[in-house]
Hints:
Blueprint: H1 2-5, H2 35-40, H3 45-53, H4 56-66, H5 78-83, E1 95-100, H6 109-116, H7 118-132, E2 136-141, H8 146-161, E3 177-182, H9 192-199, E4 223-227, H10 228-240, H11 242-247, E5 258-265, E6 271-276, H12 281-288, E7 298-302, H13 322-326, E8 336-341, H14 346-360, H15 366-383, H16 391-401, H17 411-431
Parallel strand pairs: 1-2, 1-4, 2-3, 5-8
Antiparallel strand pairs: 5-6, 7-8
Helix pairs in contact: 3-7, 3-10, 4-7, 6-7, 6-8, 7-10, 14-15, 14-17, 15-16, 15-17, 16-17
Amino acid sequence: MKTMTSIAPANRVPRQEESHPLTWRLRDDAQPIWLEEYQAKNGYAAARKALTAMAQADIVQTVKDSGLKGRGGAGFPTGVKWGLMPTDESLDIRYLLCNADEMEPNTWKDRLLMEQLPHLLVEGMLISARALKAYRGYIFLRGEYVEAAHNLNRAIEEAKTAGLLGRNIFGSGFDFELFVHTGAGRYICGEETALINSLEGRRANPRAKPPFPAAVGVWGKPTCVNNVETLCNVPAIVQHGVDWYKSLAREGSEDHGTKLMGFSGKVKNPGLWELPFGISARELFEEHAGGMRDGYRLKCWQPGGAGTGFLLPEHLDALMYAGGIAKVGTRMGTGLALAVDDSINMVSLLRNMEEFFARESCGWCTPCRDGLPWSVKILRALERGEGTREDIATLLGLVNFLGPGKTFCAHAPGAVEPLGSAIKYFREEFEAGVAQATTTPRMPAAAS
Length: 448
């Protein structure tokens, strides 16, 4: 796929360890980096440093001081999350889980790392497990990522054979086992407690919090769940230090380090790049993605997956970090943007999205279980030109009723965010689906 090979186009600055901690080891032929090559490129040096020359608390503090935030979309500070794990030495069973489910539409960043740099994730988990005093780790992998599963399992076997996993790693006295667990393909498993339930063999429903996984996680034991890209940042932070990591972002960014960002849609160069936080969306769109293909015009865009709100072309000057995107009214999410061209009808696009979100609801809470299918029913009617004059008000009511803090987890708020923004910016397209003779509402209109 082009997205798997366009990390560093030939006409751009070559990847370097000093500026591209995630991707500098990648091969131009997009083949996986196995153990011998990974070690020749300084692989596992950070793990050796962490296990033999750093105390557990020092690793946690280093990651906390670096300002590393979760790269799965929520953006919670990683070091703070690690600090929530209990320090009681009697709790000798702890788990580290890697969230590799990656079912966010338009997002494929973790896939690249797992397919081409599997040892980077293994090393990141080894260091993180040492910091958390976790003796066992699981990579919870999206079932459709067959190649990633193969490459990760091979990397784990290579690491075991080389003594980089298992007992007494680097003679440090630290033991760590790592396993790949493939899921059945459920979007809701991106929520960490639903992931834990699925790993335990239960239905993938989110859990009530508190207690949080750091106290009561998988099989009732202290557990930390981190995203693939998050864990892959850890080796470079340990190896090169906090000041270096903070220096990678552009001036003006409140987030530190680099981020895998991308653009899909009718752009000239769809792909994925490791870029510093704080670049503008316009630079990402025009210089890296090459702008729209000839004959197409940018109508709107999403900054980070289907669960983020739509933005207009004039919002391209926003800076790509959490606070920068928040200033224009939505979330950065996964940082992989979608360009919507002027041939796309927004009602049809939203109907397609809401069908996905409705299907992927776990059904645990009423607003999500019933509200998302209602939105699909209304959007289908508008798409056919059979909508009522009350339908748009009803959709806006659903956006309100399914918003943040009103459902059991964040699934429904993410599902309705693009719907609300689409009506805000393209209301006339929704109004065009109203049949002139209809007056009866499909359901009672909710107050906005």
